[in-house]
Automatic annotation (TrEMBL):
WD repeats lie at residues 32-73, 74-113, 114-153, 184-209, 210-251. PROSITE patterns: WD_REPEATS_1, WD_REPEATS_2, WD_REPEATS_REGION. This is WD repeat-containing protein 86 isoform X3. InterPro entries: PQQ_b-propeller_rpt, WD40/YVTN_repeat-like_dom_sf, WD40_PAC1, WD40_repeat_CS, WD40_repeat_dom_sf, WD40_rpt, WDR86-like. It comes from Camelus ferus. The gene is WDR86. Keywords: Repeat, WD repeat. Residues 409-463 are annotated as: Disordered. The keyword Repeat applies. The keyword Repeat applies.
Length: 520
């Protein structure tokens, strides 16, 4: 079998800092340049106090959201970090070295190494005391979080598995004949073979195969109450599926390029909570909290974002103004934030589609966007990141992905961009370094542990106004931006039905979510 991708023999990426002409539209408050390679992913802790980044330099770093200071360096991977997820007491990272690692967020020490995959690990998801992973080896796996042992190996895809989503057993219908099969919940995977599969976690069996796409499935998201999966593909369509029956419900057409990302809200309009990192367990919702007249936002290689009515597939509006493929989306309080291959983040009025602000300063593609609250102010913040491996070709209207799969590995997508340099690492031991206590920001305290917190009766609803925008990029920097002056979301009209919000799911080439239709 070919060797694994390694950091050895590759040059370090230069750290590019903003010049005097790069800040228009949104001014950078702080630039953090500790990573020595591009940042591939970022994840926010459930209490909003810490941020985890995974990088091309083979390391992950923990940051304080209060002051942007690096709190700990997580070393041990032998190749670049593809994805990361931050939980209350542990951080999880996966890598092109075929392993997953679990870290103590207080000491920075590696607690567990998960071995078994035979190729690049693309994504991980921690849910219901289990760890799920997807890989270029065409499998997904379920692991015991504490023991590091494989519980199930999900085989059936004919090409690499990209995306993951989990539906807990208590969110599934309670038909007696299905109780045993559904006891462990359902895992949904999307693959470059053009299919999505639904797996019974308790048995490891394939429950349904969702066929219909004619291209790779790049992103997916679940709507928990309706048991509906939305998938985006290189065939330029979004499809809605009943994951229990496998029926294709509707097709969303009109994009002229690959659908790279989808967006859905993460909290109800009536509940304030610390936002959890991507790829975590789906939030459960009470009966009757189904999304009503919900919107689905999709970002594409055609340089646009489209807003759709989820129940009918009707396009509501189009958000233009991007100079490259749209790679990341986040809806929050009436504002739609986007990240693009043109290295800019943008803020749109979600109702009118008007462009409100452009954030300039990064030199490479924006990867992912998160909304959270700083540890001290508890005001909402937006976290974004920039991808290092996929390169979008705007001239051809296609999303071209340069896979770092080792030589000889099957690459289902075009490899057209120049190689990105990586750096040697002095140590490959599983170790961690912490900053002295005096140098660290106040990011180690307790918090809400991701619980849904009911706001006081007269507390104002969280607004975009006064937020801080956090961006991480392939230029190796983490940037903090001021976003004062953005429009506020209008309050819901009396009698408006409750609207539930689900988890955001992302993959190397996309992310996914849905938002409710605002009353008019």
């Amino acid at each position: 079998m070919p060797g694994r991708p390694s950091l050895a023999g590759r040059s370090l990426l230069p750290v590019l800092r903003p010049t005097s002409g790069m800040g228009g539209g949104g001014s950078a408050l702080k630039v953090c340049a500790d990573h020595r390679g591009g940042i591939n992913w970022l994840s926010l802790s459930p209490d909003g106090q810490r941020l985890l980044t995974g990088s091309e330099d083979g390391t992950a770093r923990l940051w304080s959201t209060a002051d942007g200071q690096c709190c700990a360096l997580l070393q041990g991977h032998e190749s670049y970090v593809t994805f990361c997820q931050l939980e209350d007491e542990a951080a999880f990272t996966c890598s092109a070295d075929c392993t997953i690692r679990k870290w103590d967020v207080l000491t920075g020490q590696c607690l567990q190494v998960f071995r078994g995959h035979t190729s690049i690990v693309n994504r991980i998801l921690v849910a219901n005391n289990q760890l799920f992973s997807s890989s270029y080896d065409r499998t997904a796996r379920a692991w015991n979080v504490d023991k590091g042992q494989v519980s199930w190996e999900f085989r059936g895809h004919r090409n690499c598995v990209l995306t993951l989503a989990y539906l807990a057993s208590w969110d599934l219908p309670g038909a007696p004949c299905m109780e045993e099969a559904m006891a462990g919940g359902l895992l949904v995977t999307g693959s470059t073979d053009g299919t999505a599969k639904v797996w019974q976690v308790a048995s490891g069996c394939c429950h349904q195969t969702l066929r219909g796409h004619t291209g790779a499935v790049l992103c997916l998201v679940l709507d928990t109450p309706s048991h509906t999966a939305f998938t985006g593909s290189t065939d330029a369509t979004i499809r809605a599926w009943d994951i229990l029956s496998g029926e294709q419900l509707r097709v969303f057409r009109e994009h002229q390029g690959s659908v790279i990302c989808l967006e859905r809200l993460e909290r109800t309009e009536e509940t304030y909570r610390a936002i959890q990192p991507p790829m975590s367990c789906l939030r459960t919702t009470a009966p009757g909290d189904e999304l009503v007249n919900r919107h689905v936002y999709s970002g594409s290689a055609d340089r646009t974002v489209k807003c759709w009515l989820a129940d009918t597939g009707e396009r509501v509006r189009t958000f233009a103004a991007h100079g490259h493929s749209v790679s990341a989306l986040k809806y929050h309080a009436g504002t739609l934030f986007t990240g693009s291959g043109d290295a800019r983040a943008r803020a749109f009025d979600a109702q009118s589609g008007a462009l409100r602000r452009v954030f300039r300063g990064h030199a490479f593609i924006i990867n992912c966007i998160q909304v959270g609250a700083p540890a001290l102010s508890r005001a909402p913040c937006l976290f974004t990141g920039a991808r290092a491996s996929p390169v979008a070709s705007a001239s051809e209207g296609k999303w071209e992905v340069r896979s770092r799969a080792y030589p000889g590995a099957e690459n289902p997508l075009a490899e057209t961009s120049p190689s990105v340099g990586l750096g040697n690492r002095s140590s490959r031991r599983c170790s961690g370094r912490r900053r002295p206590e005096a140098e660290r920001g106040p990011c180690w305290g307790g918090g809400t542990a991701g619980r849904a917190l009911q706001r006081p009766p007269h507390a104002p609803r969280p607004q975009v106004h006064g937020q801080v925008l956090y961006t991480a990029s392939h230029d190796g920097t983490l940037r903090l931006w001021g976003v004062r002056g953005l429009p506020r979301s209008p309050p819901p009209r009396p009698g408006t039905p409750k609207r539930s919000l689900s988890r955001l799911f992302n993959n190397k080439v996309g992310c996914a979510a849905a938002a409710p239709l605002q009353p008019t």
